[in-house]
């Protein structure tokens, strides 16, 4: 109980709670304004919920999509707890359970009927535009959540179960689960719409990879300079980053020099370049983008850095 109260009293907890709520509100808006009116079924638990809701409606049962989303996510959370174990994150529990209520929130704030033109069957009036808007907005929401080690739940939970028991890698698991869900749309949609949904599932994966890579991008910097000691001290003391030093030999001159390598954020890289330029240091510098970093680079406990710009 003391540990729980300690977590609840931290700034990090409340900051991430707000971020998760805002990100899920964005996802809910994408679902309500672009997915539901067009009846598109992209590979997600939301798509499956739309199918179930429409099938029930045809049978005379009025079951709202938001209610189905909440029910399915609740079942998946229980299955994840039993089949995957307690490693399942509390963040995913929270995000999965608030999606349905947030869809209802958008319906009350601004009903889609008020902003749709007469005679249109979807918000944009073209199913491809609806698909593109939905995928881009949802991918943005997912990227924000993944950045703070959270997820939208639903399909992610199903993919983890498929990964554990069928031994597919996680990427293949997401594709398989999403494709199966898309195929359930044959119950309510013609072949053309199902194919569009499958294409949307594929585009969603591409957009998510693109946004994630952009948000996680770092600069891998290599510097050869006679002032390597000063540059090293700036990286370590001012930027509070680690670096590696290598002895290198010039292929043309045959002279031995020291090369510094470091991984920096874009702002840190800009600060380093300004430092080298302002101090007139003669250097040979190369820099490239890195989108995935493993290990201790992202530790939050590293010492505070100085203002360098």
Q: How many strand elements?
A: 4
Gyration radius, in Å: 25 Å
Number of discrete domains? 2
Portion in helices: 55-70%
The secondary-structure element order is: HHHHHHHHHHEHEEHE
Major sheet size, sense and barrel closure: 4 strands, antiparallel
The largest sheet has its strands arranged as 2-3-1-4
- Structural class by helix and strand composition: alpha+beta
Strand content: 5-15%
What is the 3D form? elongated
Distance between the termini: 43 Å
Point out poorly predicted stretches. none
Description:
The protein is α+β, with helices and mostly antiparallel strands and 309 residues long. It has two domains: 2-215, no CATH class; 217-290, Alpha-Beta Plaits, CATH 3.30.70. It is 61% helix and 10% strand. The protein is built from twelve helices and four strands. The protein has helices at residues 2-8, 11-38, 45-58, 65-83, 90-109, 112-115, 127-147, 155-166, 170-183, 191-216, 228-238, 266-278; strands at 218-225, 244-249, 256-264, 283-290. It has a four-stranded antiparallel β-sheet with strand order 2-3-1-4. β2 (244-249) and β3 form a beta hairpin. α4 runs antiparallel to α5, α8 (155-166) crosses α9 (170-183) and α9 packs antiparallel against α10 (191-216). 30% of the residues are buried.
